[in-house]
Amino acid sequence: MRGAWFLRQAIKPKTIAPALLLLLLAFSLALAQSLPEPVDPLKRAEPEPGKLALSVSLGYAPTGYRGLGVDPAKGPYTDRVASHGLSADLALSYALSETLSLGAGLAGALAYTQTLRTFADETQAYRDETRTDLIPRIALWTRGSRSP
What we know:
Distance between the termini: 69 Å
Low-confidence stretches: 1-10
Signal peptide: 1-32
Keywords: Signal
């Protein structure tokens, strides 16, 4: 019975965030120890000709704001808006030489927005809106020659 009490105490929202931060720190340290050589953050990576690179990224961007406005039919109102944005990006690049690379990618985005509009007479209107985007990309990168 005591073990179950401990689990209930350990899974509270206040204890999850610090536990996740500690787990992320431990993972970062373990990853840093396994790198084959030290990485200089101030030095740009040199592309190797003939090298194919794949990059994947995921993102989440929550936003929220309040606004004021006037509706011609119902009068003044306030808006309370909450939005959640998710994005995913997949890109493939090929280094033709040390100064020239080709790339192609696909980016996807999903935005879900909720709006609560409250008028002066205390009536409320809800609005949910979802937007999706799929964006293909083609790129040609060039970089100047290295200075000695």
